[in-house]
Fold this sequence. Notes:
Layout: E1 9-13, H1 18-30, E2 36-40, H2 44-52, E3 63-66, E4 69-72, H3 73-80, H4 99-111, H5 113-116, H6 126-129
Amino acid sequence: MEINETKNIIIFYDGECGFCNSSVQFVLKHRKHNQIYFATLQSDLAKRVLSNKGVEIKLDTLYYLKNNEVYHKSTAGLRITSELKFPYPLLKILFVVPKFIRDVVYSFIAKRRHNIQNGFCVLPTEEEKELFIS
């Protein structure tokens, strides 16, 4: 499958994190469309795409690529809500909270992500398999 960073939506996540994997499952369950792709931060694709954008990969950070722009931490999480079915897009109201405050909360959770949920492995359906890229 040909991935075009300027046209596709890609969520980059820590593939070794149970909390992160359960979050991916949440997005899969509640997404509005199939144009969202997923790649682990450990993948060659993540290394190539994010380094081309001048991003230093940090495993405790979620990255969201849309329209050739990369967002991270709380901004990535809130932007992802736009890709989900109602009522989740309403969470965008949290953009009124200053980014530095949102990112403090994000970092608090990110530091504890391995304790929130241990290993998590769900086999994707045949339809979902094509959404995972490396």
